[in-house]
Design brief:
Blueprint (H helix, E strand, L loop, with lengths): L1 H14 L2 H4 L10 H13 L2 H10 L4 H13 L3 H10 L11 H20 L7 H11 L17 E4 L5 E2 L4 E4 L1 H8 L14 H5 L2
Length: 201
């Protein structure tokens, strides 16, 4: 699943023009191309570069991650796409989040790119299920905002999937995934008495 998502991301990058690559993504202050740089860095950044940026950032992981994404995004888009294909089968398994975290990173960041560009999400139901289970399973460190309210029930309208007890947040699997990761872009696609709580994240 991860390898295929990397290849699909490479195909997406190859289809974008310069204006689309410079478009602000849903991921903080990153452009579309910087999001791609982040995904490439996860599998292709030299260890020496990663360690250097970690030191320069004062060992603040999120800051180092942003610096690394920016550094990788300085490369031509075609090179980034080629690196995603070259490293599609990279077996690296990050601590804590493991393979479900990598798959979720690709799917969420894919939407960080596609939604601002008005492109269809083209997400696969079986992969969405893996990511939803991961996001509510207690291992999604760095994915789920710490201030996401507890005691909510999430239900998807296009998958037989639900989790939790309490005020309801209901919508497509993609919209629920984005809500769980703190993205506000899909809030209008959600329904239920728990949506106001999610909206405040």
């Amino acid at each position: 699943m991860i390898a295929d998502e990397r290849r699909r991301m490479a195909d997406l990058v190859d289809s974008l023009d310069a204006g689309q690559l410079d478009t602000p993504s849903l991921c903080g202050a990153w452009s579309v191309k910087e999001v791609v740089g982040h995904l490439v860095a996860a599998v292709a950044a030299p260890t020496s570069t990663t360690l250097l940026l970690l030191v320069r950032s004062g060992f603040r992981i999120h800051r180092a991650n942003a610096l690394l994404a920016g550094r990788m995004a300085e490369r031509p888009a075609g090179e980034l796409a080629a690196l995603l294909r070259e490293h599609a089968e990279n077996p690296f398994k990050p601590p804590i989040v493991g393979y479900p975290g990598q798959l979720t990173d690709l799917q969420v960041h894919g939407q960080d790119i596609r939604r601002p560009l008005g492109l269809p999400h083209d997400l696969r139901p079986d992969r969405l299920r893996v990511s939803l289970d991961f996001l509510v399973g207690g291992r999604a460190v760095g994915f789920v905002p710490k201030h996401l309210p507890k005691g909510l029930r999430f239900e998807t309208t296009d998958l037989d999937w639900s989790w939790g007890r309490g005020p309801l947040v209901r919508g497509s699997a993609e919209a629920v995934m984005l809500a769980l990761t703190g993205r506000s872009a899909a809030l209008t696609e959600l329904s239920g008495d728990g949506v106001p709580a999610v909206s405040r994240v």
